[in-house]
Design goal:
mainly alpha; single chain
Length: 306
């Protein structure tokens, strides 16, 4: 997308909450403070909050308060402001019924969603940490609204994750998850890219490694992904800490066929350990790796070697 990098220079910026929006946020915090039991918190908190009347909101429900703030829903600008503030600040969010109503009043929901996406991708990793974090929160919640992001945005998600890697690795992982799960053909593009890298024996960088981890928890089976894991396990040095990570990915992926190549690898490691000095640091590391692999074999239903 050629205009992503320059989108931060365009007129749109995330709004700050005014006193009315701060009152709505105060009401949500007050409601959360009433949630005491585990059952209370397991419920749909936002849906339950939005429909009950509140003294803080002068007897209105939060939904009624939002509509009144937006001048009966006629002021799209004010409705947009409250939506953007609630979706981009910390613990706050809005249930589907409010977002559905908002999008029903939006002239072109797809274009609006794309505009906000561009802004978020352009400003994640901004030197202004507040803007960066708010853009991440908004992007994460935007991904939960109906519809996929266009495939053309896939590389921009990857770039945004790279920009966040040093500042917040967890956020970078979440952005990559969005790229895989919510971009058109995101899963396919990721598998294809990693397959080519592994086939070329090219090292996997931090982004590729995290993408691989995301693929393995997506609960989708693909023979190319299985082949990637098999190759990485087979070719990894048995003393390398990275091998333990690959073993974990095999467990996350959960393909029972992996028991075969896992037993081959762990069997080689067990033999090497038995022929080494048990007090040697390398031998201890080898045993730790092998035992971890053995646990994965058992978790997949195979017979362990230890």
């Amino acid at each position: 997308m050629g205009d992503i990098g320059d989108f931060k220079n365009q007129a749109f910026v995330l709004p700050d909450p005014d006193n009315d929006i701060l009152t709505l946020m105060k009401d949500f915090k007050a409601y959360v403070d009433t949630l005491i039991t585990e059952e209370d918190n397991a419920a749909d908190v936002y849906k339950n909050w939005i429909s009950r009347k509140s003294d803080i909101l002068s007897g209105l429900t939060p939904f009624e308060y939002i509509i009144e703030y937006a001048e009966g829903g006629k002021s799209f600008e004010k409705y947009e402001k409250i939506v953007l503030c609630m979706l981009s600040h910390g613990i706050f969010s809005l249930p589907d019924e409010v977002l559905d109503d908002f999008f029903s009043r939006c002239e072109d929901p797809a274009a609006w969603r794309e505009k906000i996406l561009k802004y978020c991708l352009a400003n994640i990793g901004s030197p202004d940490s507040d803007i960066s974090v708010r853009c991440f929160m908004l992007l994460r919640r935007l991904s939960d609204t109906p519809g996929c992001f266009k495939e053309a945005f896939y590389p921009d998600f990857i770039s945004a994750a790279a920009a966040m890697m040093d500042e917040n690795e967890d956020y970078a992982s979440e952005i990559l998850m969005i790229a895989v799960a919510y971009c058109e053909n995101g899963f396919e593009r990721t598998v294809e890219m990693l397959s080519e890298k592994v086939a070329a024996k090219a090292p996997l960088g931090p982004i590729e490694t995290k993408l691989l981890a995301v693929l393995c928890i997506e609960d989708k089976k693909d023979d190319r992904l299985y082949a990637i894991l098999r190759t990485l396990v087979k070719t990894a040095d048995m003393f390398d800490e990275e091998l333990k990570f690959y073993f974990t990915l095999v467990k996350d992926y959960g393909d029972l066929r992996a028991v075969s190549f896992m037993r081959t690898k762990v069997g080689q490691m067990r033999e090497a350990y038995l022929n080494s000095d048990a007090n040697d640091e390398k031998a201890k590391r080898l045993f730790d790796n092998a035992y971890h692999g053995d646990c994965v074999i058992r978790s997949l239903g195979g017979a362990g070697l230890f």
